[in-house]
Amino acid sequence: MNIASARNANTHALRLCLPLVLLLGAICCASAAERRVLVYTKNGKGYVHDNIPASVAALKKLGAENNFIVDASDDPAAFTTNNLSRYKAIIFDNANNEIFDNEAQKAALQNYIRGGGGFVGIHSASGAERDWPWFWELLGGKFLRHPKLQTFTIHVKDTNDPSDKPFPATFQWKDEFYFLDHMPDGLHVLLAGDLTTLDDPAKDKYPGKKFGDEVPLAWKHEFDGGRAWYTALGHQKEHYSDPVFMQHILGGILWAMGPGKSD
What's residue 211's pLDDT? Predict the structure, then answer.
């Protein structure tokens, strides 16, 4: 075959392959778009955790390692129906207090969940929007209080759940032991703190014996058409460099994304 013939053959082959290349590229782009999460860190007036820079960096690293894109924002203007439709999950990363500017932003979050969206709450997310009952139901409760920072015992309640698998069946953990109220029925509890190991003079007042000796600290449930996962752990910025803790959060994110994303 001469050079001209070879060139013509190569050109013909490229023309045949080009549609396939474009199709594969489109599929890859679509797949990447589907695996996108929004990390929201807004804090209203009140206490702001110093772990937010570390947690955002850790979540971006988690995304890079597990094939999903992480967008981070503390701007409530991100909560529009059109913008939220881009995401497989919304992560409230230590958001706290009043985190929305208006009712339209709240409605956008509701529409997102009701359309099958996923929600992940980390630590002080349970202290966000304390006057909004729908949000309490979504997250699984409303922050009430915590005793002093200390080490306590945690029991794994579902060893088959991906967000529990990184932990041994019982382990010691230093953190703020969160007590929530307004907790709905039907939560699938993943981690429970051992109340008998907690130094808390007020624990007989709340929670008392409401939960027995094991207080829920992480859970998941389906709510209002969507999925919600929450962990009360994660007060210290050092937690976000702990690979075991980050695998715990990864399990929650993948579950919140929906069927097929946790494989």
Answer: 94
Query: Which superfamily is assigned to 36-257 in CATH?
Result: Class I glutamine amidotransferase (GATase) domain (3.40.50.880)
Angle between helices 243-257 and 52-65 in degrees, nearest 10 = 70
How many CB atoms sit inside 10 A of residue 73's CB? 15
* pLDDT score, position 7: 40
Task: Give the separation between CA 14 and CA 12, rounded to whole angstroms.
Answer: 5
State pLDDT tens for residues 121-173: 999 999 999 999 999 999 999 999 999 999 999 999 999 999 999 999 999 99
pTM: 0.86
Is the alpha carbon torsion for 104, 106, 109, 111 positive or negative? negative
For the chain, domain boundaries: 1-34, 36-257
Q: What are phi and psi of 76, to 5 degrees?
A: -65, -15
Q: Is the pLDDT of residue 18 over 70?
A: no
Cα 185 from chain centroid? 21
Question: H or E stretch including 27?
Answer: helix 3-34
Identity at 230, one-letter amino acid code: Y
The three-class DSSP label of residue 208 is coil
* Structure tokens that stand for 86 in this block: 């881009």
Sign of CA dihedral 225, 231, 232, 238: negative
